[in-house]
């Protein structure tokens, strides 16, 4: 039986530990007794990146925000989906150790090797809202979503309103998760988005294939696009 290796750990705002584990060549994050963001299960993030960026591939300078770094899968997938040299990709990740782990443990897959991508560690609803229609897309994996006062940003009306204000007319807020979140569709509708829901099968050949949800929330037309 191959051992589980704990490579690093960081302290979360609630005082608990976040650990970087490796088992049988696969990395994942572990906290509160659960594992997530495993390197062997990036299908949903890759599909979200394709769907969430597709409307903006003709744009000369697409501008994307990724909320939460995790192990970098979504950031890498977004950068791969958009070839424009003048594209801008920003990752908001308050936990600085996650960015450091990219360079230390994932040298070959370090998402920050792409010079178009930068990481910021501070963001508030008001500073996000000041983007004022400049963002083409905001994408996130719910398990990796940063917290504000112990709550996911997508659980907070202030943050959802700021995301809507930051997006251009027709811009997309794209979310995926490792489980169905029953209230997500209605929550996004109440925040002023037009919403569609997709499901992605993970390991479809398995005896019990899992279906991961993807929500694509579009800011309704009405403002001039940038």
List keywords for this structure.
226 residues, alpha/beta, Rossmann fold, four-stranded antiparallel beta sheet, 13 strands
Percent of residues in beta strands = 25-35%
CATH topology: Rossmann fold
Element order: H for helix, E for strand: EEEEHEHEHEHEEEHEHEE
How would you describe the shape?
Answer: globular
The CATH architecture assignment turns out to be: 3-Layer(aba) Sandwich
First-to-last CA distance: 55 Å
Radius of gyration: 17 Å
Low-confidence stretches: none
Number of helices: 6
Structure classification: alpha/beta
Major beta sheet, strand line-up: 7-6-5-8-11-13-12
Verbal overview:
The protein is of the alpha/beta class and 226 residues long. It is built from six helices and 13 strands. The chain has a single domain, classed as Rossmann fold (3-Layer(aba) Sandwich), CATH 3.40.50. The radius of gyration is 17 Å and the shape is globular. The relative contact order is 0.14.
Fold topology:
Layout: E1 4-11, E2 17-23, E3 26-31, E4 34-36, H1 43-53, E5 63-67, H2 73-81, E6 88-92, H3 96-105, E7 117-120, H4 125-129, E8 135-141, E9 147-148, E10 151-152, H5 157-166, E11 167-176, H6 184-190, E12 194-202, E13 210-218
Parallel strand pairs: 5-6, 5-8, 6-7, 8-11
Antiparallel strand pairs: 1-2, 2-3, 3-4, 9-10, 11-13, 12-13
Helix pairs in contact: 1-2
TL;DR of this structure?
The protein has 226 residues and is α/β, with parallel strands linked by helices. The protein has 6 helices and 13 strands.
């Amino acid at each position: 039986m191959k051992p589980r290796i704990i490579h690093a750990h960081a302290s979360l705002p609630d005082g608990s530990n976040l650990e970087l584990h490796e088992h049988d060549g696969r990395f994942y994050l572990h906290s509160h007794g659960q594992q997530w963001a495993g390197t062997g299960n990036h299908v949903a993030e890759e599909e979200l990146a394709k769907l969430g960026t597709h409307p903006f591939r003709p744009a000369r300078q697409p501008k994307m925000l990724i909320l939460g770094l995790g192990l970098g899968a979504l950031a890498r997938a977004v950068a791969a989906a958009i070839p424009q040299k003048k594209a801008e990709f920003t990752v908001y990740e308050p936990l600085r150790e996650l960015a450091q782990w990219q360079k230390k443990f994932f040298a070959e897959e370090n998402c920050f090797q792409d010079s178009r991508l930068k990481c910021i560690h501070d963001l508030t609803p008001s500073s996000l809202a000041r983007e004022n229609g400049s963002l083409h897309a905001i994408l996130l994996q719910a398990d990796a979503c940063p917290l504000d006062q112990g709550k996911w940003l997508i659980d907070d009306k202030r943050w959802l309103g700021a995301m809507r204000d930051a997006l251009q007319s027709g811009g997309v807020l794209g979310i995926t998760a490792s489980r169905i979140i029953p209230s997500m569709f209605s929550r996004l509708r109440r925040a002023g988005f037009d919403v569609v829901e997709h499901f992605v099968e993970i390991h479809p050949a398995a005896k019990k294939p899992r279906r991961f949800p993807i929500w694509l929330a579009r800011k309704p037309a009405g403002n001039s696009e940038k």
